[in-house]
Amino acid sequence: MAGPTYGNVIVEALTRYPQREAFVLGDRRMTYAQAADLTSRIQQVLVQHGVRPGAGVAVLSPNAPEVFLVQAATFLTGARYSGLHPMGSVDDHTFLCDDAEIEVLVVHPKFAETGAAVAARSASVRHVLTLGSTEAGPDLLALCDKVSAQGLRAPAVGEETVAWLQYTGGTTGRPKGAMLSHRALVQEAQTLTISWGLPENPRYLASSPITHAAVLPLVPTLARGGTVVLHQGFDPEEWLRTIATERINYAFVVPTMLYTMLDKSDPAATDCSSLETLVYGAAPMSPGRLSEAQEVFGPVLMQVYGQTECVGMTTSLRKDEHDPVRRPDLLTSCGRPAAGVTVELLDDDGSPVPDGTVGEICVRSRAVMNGYWKRPEESAEALRENWLHTGDMAKRDDGGFFHIVDRKKDMIVTGGFNVFPKEIEDVLTSVPTVSAAAVIGLPDDKWGEQVTAFVVAKPGATVDTAALTQLVRDRKGPHQAPKKVELVPELPTTAVGKIDKKALRAAHWTAQDRLVH
């Protein structure tokens, strides 16, 4: 028997608690009834503009209730949704729209000029609709006022129908569209509700883009009758004020956001007593900085690990497993498999490796993608032997906890030794004066690649680079000690907040190609 679609989950979430508060954005407050009403109207306008099952709809906007409601309306129409990151360029957006065969592009007035430029260049975009009055295209919200709301209904599509065509971060090459089915999104909602520390009555703060990972807790929050509080960008002081004033009990951040709060604001001076779960993910966090965050926020931190290709659902390290006193070894762990997920570490031949040995993290789950959009060879490679091959390398300890050592493509080969940068970065960021660090391999005639560290000092702090090199030598051995430590004011990041090692390498790998770049 076929399972439910994500549309079934959305209809249930938006209609069960009509009088409760669903969304907050600044002074705006929207009830569930209002959200369901607007979703119905948006769906009708999309249909009027040719959106049918299988059609592509994209959104370019800062966080707003309408960003999710357009996504919901797209799913309820049986169409495909793709999110454009607000930090992307016109070229980035045009590539994605043409690759994803986007027919309708919805943009916030802030991005009206960008939307018009994309439409002018794109071979696939037929309509640009705006979330407010602009010259870029018809006002979607004004068009919604001209139609009457109807009851929400789930689409008559199968659970394997692609609902969300979400593009990878592009940290190791051109972004690829992961085909996420209704089946995968339903599993995501179930797994998150069980394994991501969601409170019974959630008040969820999303300050990173809900076109991307920050949207994952949104439907589970609504399904419990909770409230989604939105920020249109990350400001540490505003984030902390909102925790206090809105009595937020659940939030999602990437590590760079936590680092900024710890280094440039005073979380301890804010009332964060309402916070039950502070989820961090999308990139590794060093044990040293993690301990700092634990001291400031208390025992509320939860780590989650996953990829776009499995809707972010792979492992979680629970709040009670963050114990720097009794279990400091777990601060390097991404946890154990989340509910509904099977995880194995495989070698290059596809065989499981023993505990304590490095292998590639491979995943089986109903949340795994159908494949990459229009990329059959890369799909077959990623999904070979019925496993999702993540490209992340890890060890498993005897308690079943996974410890990621690094991306397979980030491994440095120096003097015949395999070196995983994350292990060195964890040592560097254990130093109290260091805010962040990134380690890459740079070309070297003698060693093949030389271990090179880029380090950001904490505000007002002085960093002794020679001492950092010696510390790594003492803890990890001479072959892992950086040949060079360079102090930088900041590290480049991708649109989703990950440290962009591709950008760091770009200035140094010009004379020769790095095969794993």
Name a few traits of the molecule.
single chain, 517 residues, alpha/beta, Rossmann fold, GMP Synthetase, Chain A, domain 3, 9-stranded mixed β-sheet, 4-stranded parallel β-sheet, 15 helices, 24 strands, disordered C terminus
Care to describe what's here?
By secondary structure, the protein is an alpha/beta fold. The chain has helices at residues 6-15, 32-48, 65-77, 90-99, 112-121, 140-144, 182-195, 218-223, 236-245, 255-264, 287-297, 376-382, 421-428, 465-476, 501-506; strands spanning 21-25, 28-31, 56-60, 80-84, 102-107, 127-130, 162-167, 177-181, 203-206, 227-230, 250-253, 277-280, 301-305, 315-317, 336-337, 341-346, 359-365, 388-396, 402-407, 412-414, 417-419, 434-444, 448-457, 484-487. The protein has a 9-stranded mixed beta sheet. Strands 4-3-5-6 form a 4-stranded parallel beta sheet, sandwiched between helices. The chain has a 4-stranded antiparallel beta sheet with strand order 16-17-18-19. The protein starts with 5 loop residues before the first helix and ends in an 11-residue tail after the last helix. Mean pLDDT is 90; it is low at 511-517.
